[in-house]
Write a structure and sequence with these properties.
The complex is a heterodimer. Chain A is α/β, with parallel strands linked by helices. In chain A, 57% of the residues lie in helices and 11% in strands. Chain A has 2 domains: 2-309, ABC transporter involved in vitamin B12 uptake, BtuC; 335-565, P-loop containing nucleotide triphosphate hydrolases (Rossmann fold, 3-Layer(aba) Sandwich). In chain A, strand 11 (536-541) and strand 12 (544-549) form a beta hairpin. Chain B has 11 helices and 2 strands; from the N terminus they run H-H-H-H-E-E-H-H-H-H-H-H-H. The chains are: A alpha/beta, B mainly alpha.
Chain lengths: 570, 300
């Protein structure tokens, strides 16, 4: 895995170095444009994190750019400080603003998130134009000192170019470090299927906050460099056009990869030079390029490059060191106690006063007609939905109010009925992403191998998740759940869409898991699958337990029979 | 005093009516495709420019030496903007209909850029002025003096809003449009052409934007960079009025127009804008799912 990763890094470096070397040999005009490319690449790198990787449509990146430009410039104009000091101030100031914004904004849904970030950018623009005493109003601030480094003035365009690109290099390296395996896979999982990520123990809030702040910091650095290289800062740096330019660069270059941000920035800053006949209307070309990219090649130029030139290798499990096939879980006496669970949707009671206990080594089947509350129950235990009343106790401590990802860390795992899967990961990466954060990377790889060894998917480790059949997706679901090292495993219709041979494989596997100590709850409609495998059967009707006990007992219960077969008198 | 405050309120209502048309189109698209149309404001601006051009064109016609009035141009603007809307849905939405909504956000941002800067390339950044709706005189009733322009804006916008209400609620086409918005696949299974319905919704939305552009073109001029702010007002109105609700959106748009005019007169335009954004952020801060509950609830 790490070889794949360093290969990506080297590709990115080559993409950066070739144009840089070309630019070093041109005139000072060409170098100035290349400097601008570097500056925008830094801003786009931040945007690639928040928008490309996390999929959050932030419209505040231009605002962070402008805030960085203004704060660095104003400090530079009023106090005689070195550039690096001003830069540090700009970064801290912008990061603080981002932190304050983040608290209310990050929990919003995508359409409100976009609007709120746009609103904040508008307020910043209004302040910059109207707070004339400080910002210089519509004319902006002049007389920003030249760039300097440890007392040396960087006066030639050559020096400035190298300085900006060294900073870009540091930021690219930092981005690669943040996105090292398995975090990159976790983030992909988070972007495509936030619920799955949360129930696999990935802390969504922490990632969103980190990326939002990082995007602000990168934006601020770019803005500060921009102000110092031009020598002027004006409200234009806060206008929506800057935001749109950064967005266009990120998307056109390829929003899923750091190299994309670099490619996009270089292309779009040079585009006005190549299309001189457009004069100042080059934004039309930005628009057309953006539209074409999003329709024809949504993963951008680098995405195309990756698709045709770099192939993701499959993983040859034979070449990896074999590890002992130990039990996934060695707990022997866990229990989950549910008491008095109540959940209503509007006026409808989905669960009423539900009590249930799950113990280790035991497989419990949950049946009941549609709308009897089965999925709601699983959602509440895994933390995806909240109960109105009632308690859930895991190994003696109450967990009914803890976040989904924390429950996963404490040993509750689940699979989903409808599988909306991330398409940017392969089987191996998806399982690795879910592996428990408590272990080091080597252990996590080993664990992923162990899970795959016991799976039907062993021959498909390199397949993209989006290309799997329904049955394989269900198997992957189970593998991902197992990677979190569960004590309690909740399976929501695991046999739906499986052939009888596949169901057979699944039953055997579930039996093995129970023997290793896991407590398993299965919701399924197929009695043929459920009856032979479960130890205990619970029949739900309209949100409460109708019958409970050994499968044979429940099937003999007249109330359960009536529910399933109607009021037949024969 | 009464005269002035009445004048002010009429001013606010006429601006609010134009905002309501923009917002109505904005919500129709949101309901149909679950994504925000960032180019809505640019279509308002485009409608304004179309009005200016049509007015000039009709002067050149020698039949009537004065500029054609807005009311005569309105049907032309509605029809041509509807055509643009249809085209827009085919270019910016159709290829993306099976992708996540965020891609539609981006394609409409791109379309907005193209529209804004193409018009900018043709006309330049100077403000243009459109014709009055009927005439620019004033009516005097007793001691009250009311400008004809504002009354005619309010009347024609109300007429258009009522037309949309009638279309959506009382006609077979409206029922089809609503069905296709709620669940395109389901609608298709009962014989409704879902994609066409969505394109028609786009036509309607863009036609409304164009009409708003015409109504605003006389009093507020038309400038190529106006689009973004109009879009923002509509976006805010939808948030305040309840995501996806037509009635709420219209009421919120009226309120925003009134608020803006009154605050701008009493304090200043900048303060009015800043307060509006601040109010929006406060609403989102305390009610992360909007001021009113969303119409559509997601199923997990």
């Amino acid at each position: 895995m790490s070889s794949l990763y360093s290969r990506d890094f080297i590709v990115t470096l080559i993409i950066m170095l070739i144009p840089l070397c070309l630019a070093l040999n041109t005139d000072s005009y060409g170098q100035r444009i290349m400097t601008l490319s570097g500056i925008y690449a830094i801003a786009a790198m931040g945007y690639h994190l928040i928008f490309g990787r996390l999929g959050a449509l932030s419209l505040a990146q231009g605002c962070f750019f402008g805030l960085g430009a203004y704060s660095a410039a104003l400090i530079g104009v009023h106090f005689e400080l070195s550039f690096l000091t001003c830069l540090l101030f700009a970064v801290i100031f912008t990061a603080l603003v981002a932190l304050i914004i983040a608290l209310p904004v990050l929990r919003l849904e995508s359409h409100y998130f976009a609007l709120a970030t746009l609103g904040i950018a508008q307020i910043a623009l209004l302040i910059a134009i109207n707070w004339t005493e400080v910002t210089g109003g519509a004319n902006g601030a002049y007389g920003i000192p030249q760039l300097d480094l440890f007392g040396m003035e960087l006066s030639s365009s050559n020096d400035v170019l190298i300085f900006v690109w060294v900073i870009l290099f540091i930021i690219v390296s930092l981005t690669f470090w943040i996105m090292r395996a398995p975090f990159n896979y976790q983030v992909t999982l988070l972007k495509d299927t936030p619920e799955v990520a949360a129930s696999s123990g990935i802390d969504i809030g922490r990632w969103r906050l980190t990326f939002f702040i990082m995007s602000a910091i990168f934006g601020a650095i770019a803005g500060a460099l921009q102000a110092y290289t031009i020598g002027v800062v004006s409200p234009a740096t806060l206008e929506f056009q800057v935001m749109v330019s950064i967005l266009a660069m990120t998307v056109i270059g390829g929003k899923n990869h750091p190299a994309g941000a670099v490619i996009g920035a270089i292309l779009l800053t040079h585009l006005p030079e190549w299309f001189r006949f457009l004069e100042t209307h080059y934004l039309i070309a930005y628009g057309v390029a953006l539209l074409c990219t999003i329709i024809v090649a949504p993963s951008g130029i680098f995405g195309l490059f990756e698709k045709f030139l770099i192939r993701n290798p499959g993983y040859d499990l034979k070449s990896l060191p074999s590890i002992e096939n130990k039990a996934v879980c060695d707990a022997n006496s866990t229990s989950l106690e549910i008491q008095g669970l109540l959940k209503t949707y509007g006026g409808i009671k989905a669960l009423k006063n539900l009590n249930m206990t799950l113990t280790s080594h035991q497989i419990v089947g949950l049946v009941g007609p549609n709308g009897s509350g089965k999925s709601t129950l699983i959602n509440i235990i895994s933390g995806l939905q909240r109960q109105d009343e009632g308690t859930i106790k895991l190994d003696g401590s109450f967990i009914e109010n803890t976040a989904s990802y924390k429950r996963s860390n404490r040993g509750i795992a689940r699979t989903y009925q409808t599988s909306l899967r991330s398409s940017d990961l392969n089987v191996y990466q998806a399982i690795l992403a879910c592996s428990s954060n408590q272990h080091n990377l080597k252990h996590r790889h080993n664990q992923t191998h162990a899970i795959l060894r016991n799976s039907r998917l062993i021959s498909k480790t390199g397949s993209m998740v989006g290309d799997l059949s329904t049955a394989d997706v269900r198997e992957l679901d189970l593998c991902m759940a197992l990677a979190t090292e569960p004590k309690i495993l909740l399976l929501d219709e695991p046999a739906a869409g499986l052939s009888s041979a596949e169901q057979q494989f699944l039953s055997t596997k579930i039996r093995h898991l129970a023997q290793s100590g896991i407590s398993i709850l299965i919701v399924d409609h197929s009695m043929d699958f459920l009856l032979p495998v479960v130890d205990r059967l619970i029949c739900l009707d309209q949100g409460s337990v109708l019958a409970e006990g050994a499968p044979a007992e429940v099937l003999a219960d007249p109330k359960a029979l009536k529910l399933y077969f109607g009021n037949s008198r024969s | 005093m009464l005269d002035i405050s009445l004048q002010l309120i009429l001013n606010g209502i006429s601006l609010g009516c134009a905002y309501a048309l923009i917002t109505l189109g904005f919500v129709l698209v949101i309901n149909a495709i679950g994504a925000v149309n960032f180019a809505q404001g640019d279509f308002v601006m485009a409608g304004g420019f179309l009005t200016v051009v049509l007015a000039e064109f009709m002067v050149a016609d020698n039949f009537n030496p004065i500029r054609a009035s807005g009311l005569i141009i309105l049907p032309l603007v509605l029809i041509s903007m509807a055509c643009f809307g249809f085209l827009f849905s085919i270019i910016a939405y159709k290829p993306l209909k099976n992708r996540p909504p965020v891609t539609v956000f981006i394609s409409t941002i791109a379309m907005g850029l193209i529209i804004q800067h193409s018009i900018n390339a043709g006309f330049g950044p100077e403000p243009q002025i459109g014709p009055a709706l009927i005439s620019s005189g004033k009516i005097t009733i007793g001691t009250l003096t009311i400008s004809k322009q504002q009354i005619s804006i309010i009347l024609s916008a109300s007429f258009l809003i009522l037309c949309v209400g009638f279309l959506m609620n009382k006609t077979q086409l409206g029922r089809k449009l609503r069905a296709a918005s709620q669940d395109s696949e389901m609608a298709e299974s009962i014989g409704i052409n879902g994609p066409r319905c969505i394109s028609i919704t786009f036509s309607l939305a863009i036609a409304l934007a164009g009409a708003a552009g015409l109504l605003l073109s006389n009093q507020f001029f038309v400038t190529t960079s106006d689009g973004g702010l109009y879009m923002l007002k509509a976006y805010i109105a939808v948030t305040l009025g309840g995501w996806g609700r037509l009635d709420g959106a219209v009421i919120a748009a009226l309120a925003i127009g009134l608020f803006e005019v009154i605050m701008a007169t009493l304090v200043s335009y900048v303060v009015a804008e800043a307060l509006l954004f601040a109010a929006l952020l406060l609403v989102l801060f305390f009610r992360p799912s909007g001021l009113f509950a969303e119409v559509v609830q997601r199923r997990t």
